[in-house]
Amino acid sequence: MKDDNCIFCKLANGEIPTATLYEDEDFRVILDANPASKGHALIIPKEHYANLYELDDTLAGKAMILAKKMINRLTDVLGCDGYNLVQNNGECAGQTVFHFHLHLIPRYKDDGVGIGWKLNELTEEDREDILSRL
Ligand code: AMP
Ligand code: ZN
After folding, report:
1. In the chain, which ranges are E strands?
2. Which atom in ligand 1 lies closest to the alpha carbon of residue 97?
3. Active-site residue set
4. What's the pLDDT at 53?
């Protein structure tokens, strides 16, 4: 299903031209318009899924296999030193476009790209709470 009001549906299906790195029947891989680093790309399914929870299981697997293929190829092209794969679900997690996408963010030594979080101690209370209710 496509969503007429969704910009990523339009980008993924070629209705809006964009810098395309790869395309197949399920996905388009494009350069992010506001890159965190040189070569920051997005894997976008052609069908509309708001987030990972909605994504079809088969496509979820294919997205990860495609990510592996893209970063192998792009590492050679860009000469980067590492990669972050980032996938945001929900506004509080930083999702701004509500059509599933997987960020491929090349990392270069000392690039200063700020992907991270403060490290806390796992408390006994949290550990017991989570394990007991899972
Ligand atoms: P997120 O915050 O995880 O939802 O990521 C949305 C990403 O989409 C951001 O990195 C934006 O820079 C990117 N983005 C939004 N609109 C476009 C566009 N028209 N073309 C390419 N990238 C876009
Ligand atoms: Zn969409």
Report:
1. 20-23, 27-31, 41-45, 82-86, 102-107
2. 4
3. 101
4. 97
How far apart, in whole angstroms, are the C-alpha atoms of residue 77 and residue 21?
A: 12
CB 107 within 8 A of CB 84: yes
- Cα distances (angstroms) measured from residue 31 to each of 48, 84, 117, 132: 19, 15, 25, 43
Whole-number Å distance between alpha carbons of 67 and 58: 14
Ranges of the chain with pLDDT below 70: none
The whole-number pLDDT of residue 3 equals 87
d(CA 41, CA 56): 21
Q: Report the number of secondary-structure helices (H) and strands (E) in the chain.
A: 3, 5
- The residue whose C-alpha atom lies closest to atom 18 belonging to ligand 1 is 33
Tokens 């550990």 map to which residue? Answer: 127
> What would the two tokens of residue 57 be?
């299981």
Residue ID of nearest Cα to ligand 1 atom 23: 33
| pLDDT (0 to 100) of residue 67 | 98
How much is the pLDDT for 37? 98
* pLDDT value of residue 87: 98
Instruction: Copy the structure tokens of residue 11.
Output: 């980008």
